[in-house]
Amino acid sequence: MSSQALVADLQGPWRRVLFVAVYEALAIAVTTLGLDAATGQGAAHAGAMAVTTSAIAIAWNLLFNGLFERWEARQTVKGRSLARRVAHAIGFEGGLVLVFVPLFAWWFQVGWAKAAAMQAGLLVFFMAYTFVYNWCFDRLFGLPASAR
C-alpha cells in the first residue's frame, strides 16, 4: 500500500486529535442506537452511556496508540500489513471489553451475561469499524511516520 495521502500528509498530535474526534463522534451515534435497541431504556440513557464509553475509549485510544506506534517504530518491517492491522484492532478492543462489560451490567442493571452479549455485539461492530476507519484514515492522511 502506498503511503501517499489523498488529502494531506498529517503527522503528530494533530493527526491523533483528528483521528479520535471523528472516530468517537461516529461511535457515539452508532453506540447510542445499538444500546437503545438492546435495552429499550431510551436514547437518553443509552446516549449517556455512549458518551461515557467514548470518554473511556478516548483515554484508552491515546494510551494504546501511543504505545503501539512506539512498538511499531522499532520494527524492521515497515508499513501496516493486514496482520498488523488485525493485531491493532484486537488489542485495542480487547482492552475496552475488560472495562465495558462490568460498566454495562451496572448502568443498564442487567446481568453479566446480558452485559457480555451487549458488549459482544458492539465488539463485532467495532472490530470491523476500527479496521475500516483506520484504513480510510491512512488513505486520506497518509501513514504515520512510525509506519513508513
Entry summary:
With 148 residues, this protein is mainly α. It has helices at 12-39, 43-73, 82-107, 112-141. Helix 1 runs antiparallel to helix 2, helix 1 packs antiparallel against helix 4 and helix 2 runs antiparallel to helix 3.
Describe how the helices and strands are arranged.
Blueprint: H1 12-39, H2 43-73, H3 82-107, H4 112-141
Name its key features:
4 helices; 148 residues; mainly alpha
Oligomeric organization of the protein chains: single chain
How many helical stretches? 4
Principal-axes shape call = elongated
What is the H/E string? Answer: HHHH
What structural class do you assign from the helix and strand content?
Answer: mainly alpha
Mean pLDDT: 89
How many individual β-strands?
0
- Unreliable segments of 5+ consecutive residues: none
Major sheet characteristics: none
Strand proportion: under 5%
Helix content: over 70%
How far apart lie the N and C ends? 11 Å
- Compute the gyration radius: what is it? 16 Å
